[in-house]
Amino acid sequence: MRLLNTATMKVQTFMGSTMPKYAILPGAMTKSRSRTCSLSDISLARASRRSRKPAASAELSEAINSMFQWYQQVHVCYIYLADLPPDSKVAIEDALPKCKYFTRGWTLQELIAPRDVHVYDSTWTMRGTRLTLVDPISDITSVGRDVLMDSEELYFIPVATKMSWASKCNTTRVEDIAYSLLGIFDANMPLLYGEGHKAFRRLQEEVMRKTKDLTLLIWIRHGFGPGNATTVSTSRTFPASTSPITPLSSNTSRRHSHYSGTCGTRPGPGSSDG
Q1: Which residues form the signal peptide (predicted)?
Q2: 126 and 252 together in one domain
Q3: Nearest CA to 166 among 180, 156, 153, 154?
Q4: Phi-psi category of 208—alpha, beta or left, where left has phi over 0 and alpha has psi -120 to 50?
Q5: CB of 108 within 8 A of CB of 141?
Q6: What confidence tens digit (pLDDT) does each residue in 32-43 have?
Q7: How many domains in the chain?
Q8: Distance separating alpha carbons of residues 106 and 38, to the nearest angstrom
Q9: Other CB atoms closer than 10 Å to residue 192's CB: what's the count?
Q10: Cβ of 225: how many Cβ atoms within 10 Å?
């Protein structure tokens, strides 16, 4: 992993057990962002910028497949909200839902995986932590408070519920809506920019292969839904329901056992900015 030394502003490379304590700053690194790290005892930071230069494709694939783990190991994740007004302007509970950050596909792992998250407004004033803001963050993202407070709880959440979180998110590249969810589903797969909606289909196939959780079949698109389970849609449209979802595996339901593997997957929708 490459980390920026915030004292020298030079990039250093670390491997395996030599990994020091570090912070992550989602998005592009700026001088103002590096100053934030100096507020704590952390001297190394990782800027979560995703380069897509062809020469770096192998490194990018490894980085995105490892990203959730990097966030889990981070000492603190700093979230800078450029569109969050200063404290004197508006209550944070009212302002947070309007922040574009919560519409990004990559946001879910940035909020769930780290052991600690600090939130800053447009003036670089700290407005709270994930702990103090857990209620509004949960309301905005639909991610349960238990998951936000302990990423290990993520593994007990049904696939359909996780997909419903993603239904609110967008990415600049169509493929990234799938790649940004790899850690959420504890999945790994090669990155193929240019494959378009097939990326989400591959993600579904990998999730089905690993979990056998047939709540994946709840997804609906163009009339396909719980009433017609012959198609697994990669659409991020989620059926409106207030009922809790529980995992359903092919081992517990014989009549659904033939839906494992790649049966019935469909290309996903286009994505927008985020």
Answers
A1: none
A2: no
A3: 180
A4: alpha
A5: yes
A6: 444 444 445 555
A7: 2
A8: 25
A9: 14
A10: 16
